[in-house]
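Let's practice the habit of predicting before peeking. Look at the sequence and jot down your guess about where helices and strands might fall. Then scroll down.
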Amino acid sequence: MGRRLLLVDGNSLANRAFYALPPLSTGSGVPTGAVYGFLTMLLRFVAEKDPSHIVIAFDHPSPTFRHSMFDGYKKTRKPTPESLIAQMPVLKDVLTALNLPQVECPGYEADDVLGTLAKAGKEQGLAVTILTGDRDCLQLLDHTVEVVLPVRGISQVREYLPGTFEEEMGIPPSLIVDLKALAGDSSDNIPGVKGIGEKTALSLLKQYGNLDGIYAHLHEISPERVRRLLREGQDTALLCRELATIDTDSPVLRQVEGFVWQRPSQEQVSGIVSSLEFHSLLPRINALLSPDRQEGVRHTRAICTREQLSAFCSEAMQAGQVAVYMATPDGKREAEKTLTWPSVIGVSCGHDSSVICLDGDSEKHQDAMWELFAPLLANEQVAKTGFDLKWLFALLYGKGIKARGEFFDVLVASYLLDPTRTAYNLSDIARVHGSVKVPPLAGGKKKEGDSEGEVLDPAIHMALGAAACLETTPHLKKKLEDDGLTKLAMEVEFPLTQVLAAMEVTGVGVDLELARLIREEFGSLLQSLEGSIYELAGEKFNIASPKQLSEILFDRLKMRPVKKTKTGYSTDASVLEALSQDHQLPGKVLEYRHYAKLKSTYLDSLEDVVSPVTGRVHTTLHQTVTATGRLSSSDPNLQNIPVRGDDGRSLRRIFVASPGKLLLASDYSQVELRIMAHVSGDPTLIDAFCRGEDIHARTAAEIFGVPISEVTPDLRSKAKAVNFGVIYGISDFGLSRNAGVTREEAREFIEAYFVRYPLVRRYMDLTVVQARRDRYVVTLFGRRRPIPEIESRNRQRRAFAERTAINTPIQGSAADIIKIAMVRIFRRLEQEKLRSRLILQVHDELIFEFPEDEEVRLRKLVREEMEGAAALKVPLRVDIDVGKSWYDV
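Done guessing? Here is the structure:
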């Protein structure tokens, strides 16, 4: 902390922001998307890294020294879009208002400025962070210089240290220029050695150390073709290395003390930010410019004794609120598995932040938590808030304690407000919605000289995290209300967290002996397939290697390639399916991959995920991962076990009921098609569902013009592909592949479908128009999903966004409906004091474990709640089955 130099590559970051975001503009038409994206990234890192010095480097418009060395340098790059050019002066004006130094140097690129200042910063004792969209800067990495690269647009970043890069590429950062000298760099039009690709270049560099080492040992390099290419391209390689090398001695000011960031006044910045209509950024900017960003927290205290814990619980009762925060995922899982309180827990009931510090081995401390803290959480009069509360609910549920009263989960609320993010970080949320600055989680060991009463990381992190949860809750509540999400949060998502916690604690029974037998069967089958593949190929090879498989298929067996990737001819599933029409080998490889994946994913690791305490599998259910609202699972992922084919479905035989109990599976019938009928209002679809007709047979009759009694299985299958394909905005190409028909036939099927169901087409068209207007779509229950790429300049991205806009209200509403059913069923099981338990959710299916004497009551209860979860224009229908294993049901 204190002395850190943040170096920002202005051009590459602006370019990244321009293409990552839709073309935003002010009400008067001034384009602002690149500026907004740039500031979003910059503010995030100024807040996270808290730099003392900042420099924004820009390319100078004049030609660089590299252009004089090689006329083709960057010659293949497309011209900068006019809209981006127009935004650069606006961006520089905002940076000037923020007092952020901007540097450019005639004859040099921004990379050279960054490299020179990074070197100077190191020499003058500063830690250095480089924020850039250009991987060229990775060559600057060392023990005091880190490089941060945005990935997936600007929503996510990857932080590189030398070890991170070497782990990814297999070579140290210093060899990046040697790699480009050999393999070239298409983005800068650096040619490299003709015929030498990245894989060969990496292999040579690992073997001989660097470019000079390669040429020093040129005589021993094989095969002869590679040796010849290297010899012929030696001069080019040396030139390319020079072109790729960042100049760390460019003529710029090197006294970094001249770049100390002097925070401007809020008035100085708010005018220009408001004029650009960046209203959502103002709180973040104000928080950064505030002289004391932790004004809301008076002090942090440690709660170490029973007396201190009792006093805190009394304070919380009087305040009527408490925040609980625990940061480490491993600690959360350990708490769930062992039913013991973690040794460090952040808590707060007002402006102060506190941390409960327990002796993890002390039985009396555990007793104090169960006797004093647990009753506080079970008290209906105390409002509870926190970040990712599922671990807490699981811990209490395992001890038979029901957490009651009002709950607010900051993680779940943040997910509802923006479900497209890849990660949710409390430090970021606190910075945007409050004044408490939550420091990054650190090691937390007491150092010599620290006072006895001082609380250190991770305790400080958790204590301030609890205070931040309490402070941000009212802000997030207001945002939920503004976006129409309050009911979904309070009545579905927050209660669902407790349901998921109970499901995780209960777990699923497994038959390990049967799993071992199936694993042996799969192993034998894989051996047999391996032999068949080698025989058909005429030689042994690594079946799992796409490169070696490609050589067998296209070089040895002379099959016609279907599609090409950057690294060669593709051997993905779609390619192998196409090739299998003409040769047995691709089909055998597909079969091999299928069994190998099932075996490695589920059978080889099953013993590792079975609890030694319960003998059951306790999968983790994720509530804040998918953008549509669907749940997902991991460790193991029980939602990806195949439902088609006896081989995949046979894995479900492993998951069984406990002795004396049975499993009940309840599955929504065609719920997404029913939702489509409801939202489109199409009378023909509605009539079919209300009559209880076979919807696929009815669709076949409609689009093929035959009586429903004459619909053949083949026609029904094709109609089924159309029914489900329409929901996902399928193309004629996609339908032709799924239904096994020509593209022309697929096009005719889709056109006939929309003739018979015209209101479905109308719904789809109106949804895309609405998404274009609002930049988001909503489900029947108000869940929002942003669709920022609906106006993308890239045709493929735009088409994908349109399909997403059509599908999300359907798939998201189905997710909402089953969540509503889960919450209602869980409550009724509790109210009616049944021993039946919900143990698993897989898309449209719920699975319960129950004692045999509760079957009649459970069937009735489940049907009532699932079919009554939503009032649609068509009835919801549920199929229910009972058996001893998941396979049986």
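How did you do? The first strand starts at residue 4 and ends at 9.
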